[in-house]
Amino acid sequence: MERTRDRDRAALPEPMRREVRLLGDILGDVIRGSAGPDLLADVERLRHAVIDARGGGWGGGRDEPRDGGAAADEIATLVASWSVEQAEQVARAFAVYFHLANLAEEHQRIRNLRERDTGQEPVRESLAAAVAEISRDSGPEHLRELLASLRVHLVLTAHPTEARRRAVVAALRRISGLLDVLDDRRTAAADRAEARRELHEQIDLLWRTSQLRVKAMDPIDEVRTVMTAFDETLFRVVPAVYRELDRALAASPASAYTAPAFLRFGSWVGADRDGNPFVTAQVTRETATIQADHLLRALENATARIGRALTLHAATTPPSAALRRALAAAHAAHPELLAEIEARSPQEPYRTYLLYAAQRINATRVRHADLAYPGPAEFLADLRTVQASLVAAGAVQQAHGELQHLIWQAETFGFHLAGLEVRQHSEVHARALAELRPAGPPGSEHSAGPPGSEPASPWSPRTEEVLATFRAVAWVQDRYGVDACHRYVVSFTRSADDIAAVHELARYAMAGGRPPVLDVVPLFESAADLANAPDVLTGMLALPEVAQRLAASGRELEAMLGYSDSAKELGPASATLRLFDTQARLAAWAAANGVRLTLFHGRGGALGRGGGPAGRAVLAQAPGSVNGSFKVTEQGEVIFARYGQQAIAKRHLEQVGSAVLLASSARIAERTAAAAEAYSGVAARIDQAACAAFRRLVEADGFADWFARISPLGEIGGLRIGSRPAKRGLAAPPAGAAPAMDLADLRAIPWVFAWSQTRMNLPGWFGLGSGLAAVADAEGPDVLRRAYRDWPLFGVLLENAEMSLAKTDRLIGARYLALGGREDLTEMVLAEYDRTRRLVLTVTGHDRLLANRHVLSRAVSLRDPYVDALSYLQLRALTALRDTDPEDHERERLERLLLLTVNGVAAGLQNTG
Question: How far are the Cα atoms of 370, 377, 416 from residue 353, in angstroms, in the given order?
Answer without folding.
Answer: 17, 17, 23
